[in-house]
Amino acid sequence: MREIAPPRADVSPDRRPRLGYAMTLTAATLFAANGAVSKVILDTGISSLRLSELRATCGAAGLAVGLWVWLNERLDAAQLVGGLIVLAGIFLAETSR
């Protein structure tokens, strides 16, 4: 059986409860909005499989844009352009069905 190491005395945890509450509230709000928007979109006749594909593609695009903004200074231009070309190809392939 493994024993859990006690917390180190020289490292104090960075506690920010307001940030945690804000993140939880934001996640719950986005989850509720996602359900409402999904219901409206499904009522238009789109299949649930197509909606899941679109949501996954948009999520991946959002993640890629967020990483691009965050890592913009750490990557050179060729890596950024290559990544954006790959992302555009995936998005166009997904939406052209």
Description:
The chain has 97 residues and is mostly helical. The protein has 2 domains: 16-45; 46-97. Helix content is 72%, strand content 0%. The protein contains 3 helices and no strands.
Rg from Cα:
20 Å
Helix and strand composition category: mainly alpha
Record field, number of beta strands: 0
Number of helices: 3
Helix and strand sequence:
HHH
What would the keywords be for this entry?
0% strand, mainly alpha, 97 residues
Secondary-structure topology with pairs:
Elements: H1 17-43, H2 48-71, H3 77-95
Helix pairs in contact: 2-3
Task: Describe the structure in brief.
This protein is mainly alpha-helical. It folds into 2 domains: 16-45; 46-97.
